[in-house]
Specification:
With 349 residues, the chain is mainly alpha-helical. It has 15 helices and seven strands. It has helices spanning 10-15, 24-37, 45-62, 72-84, 92-100, 105-112, 118-121, 134-142, 161-169, 171-189, 210-223, 248-251, 264-270, 277-298, 325-342, and strands at residues 42-44, 150-152, 156-159, 226-227, 234-235, 241-244, 259-262.
Length: 349
């Protein structure tokens, strides 16, 4: 919930996020909060539009989350990425700086596309009878009628002075509220995509795979080496990459059941591509099955064995995996691969 306030119409601000048919409202408000956070209250709309793009960049370009068929933000961000040639995992601040200073006419056109609907539509709860009349909302907002959040003109928005203290004091809570609402919206449009809340912002740093590498070192040491399932080259202890079979950008986790050793140079070229199951699943499963059996023999108390329990709940009582476990494993992996493909992840060639 949003923090309450006796003099402000908090219900109207919260109402801006009700029955949301597109994601722009979330990113517009987040962009406003970022400006208020640094003491800006008379804000160029262009800067807010770049903030929207930068805030949604990682979710759209890296994690490839769908925003719904009718959402324009997703499409415009993809177009801007192509026009500007910005990498999919670029830092948010650098994206904002690049777009704020871009002289490309196509980029400016794409950014100002948001001006058609975003600034006045966000104020709909304050002006319900005029929400479709852009000029009427602009005029009323400039007089701060109905204690609206901001006034808007052709180039700027101006935060209503009565809202400044509330926004400044509650920026963190309001951002959390907005991200919560955004995660619900995106989960609705991506019902089978895992871990939506952790795909809204770029993590400061990916977690280390040191523990997982040590487990695979143990396995490879016991076996005297294993074959890379992609290149058939022999892999030895400390001379391999720890590879996500289903891309990290989709699953957003480092669970051992999705990690295998791979040829280092191949792993770099595979990047976030999807493996074809017809070609690679059998070898992937055989390697995982062998890994489980070696770990249970060499180090049965290994904590990372728990990573498999979501797939094989009765794993602890077994030394050798039954034949039907292969089908169970595939029933988990196959839908994830399919959904990832539907969301725009490409298959390996």
């Amino acid at each position: 919930m949003m923090p309450n306030h006796k003099q402000l119409p908090i219900n109207l601000l919260a109402g801006s996020f009700n029955n949301t048919a597109a994601a722009y409202k979330f990113y517009w408000f987040l962009s406003i909060l970022e400006e208020v956070e640094v003491g800006e209250y008379h804000i160029p709309k262009h800067r807010l539009f770049t903030g929207m793009v930068a805030a949604s960049w990682y979710t759209i370009n890296y994690f490839k989350i769908s925003f719904g068929k009718q959402d324009q933000l997703h499409d415009k961000v993809m177009e801007i990425a192509a026009v500007e040639g910005i990498t999919i995992d670029e830092d948010r601040g650098k994206i904002k700086s690049r777009l704020n200073n871009s002289e490309l006419l196509q980029t400016q056109k794409l950014l100002w596309h948001f001006d058609k609907q975003v600034p006045h539509r966000f104020l709909s709860p304050w002006f319900p009878s005029a929400s479709e009349n852009k000029n009427a909302v602009y005029q009323a907002s400039q007089a701060f009628e109905n204690d609206c959040l901001y006034g808007v003109d052709q180039t700027h928005i101006t935060i209503n002075p009565i809202w400044v203290d509330y926004l400044s004091r509650n920026t963190g809570v309001l951002k959390s509220f907005c991200y919560w609402k955004l995660s619900l919206y995106l989960q609705k449009h991506n019902p089978n995509v895992p871990d939506i809340p952790n795909k809204l912002i770029k993590p400061a740093q990916r977690k280390s795979l040191v523990k997982q590498r040590k487990v695979w070192d143990l396995i490879i040491d016991e076996l005297g080496g294993v074959d890379c399932i992609y290149t058939n080259t022999r892999l030895y202890k400390r001379a391999f990459a720890v590879e996500h079979f289903i891309p990290y950008a989709f699953v957003s986790h480092d669970l051992l059941w999705n990690l295998i050793p791979a040829n280092t140079s191949f792993n770099s070229s595979k990047s976030d591509k999807l493996p074809g199951l017809e070609k690679y699943f059998d070898a992937f499963y055989d390697l995982q099955r062998t890994a489980i059996e070696v770990i249970k023999y060499k180090n049965p108390k290994e904590k990372l064995l728990e990573d498999y329990l979501s797939i094989f709940p009765d794993l602890e009582s077994m030394k050798v995996l039954p034949d039907d476990y292969k089908g169970k494993f595939k029933s988990i992996v196959e839908p994830l691969i399919t959904i990832a493909s539907n969301n725009g992840f490409e298959y390996m060639r």
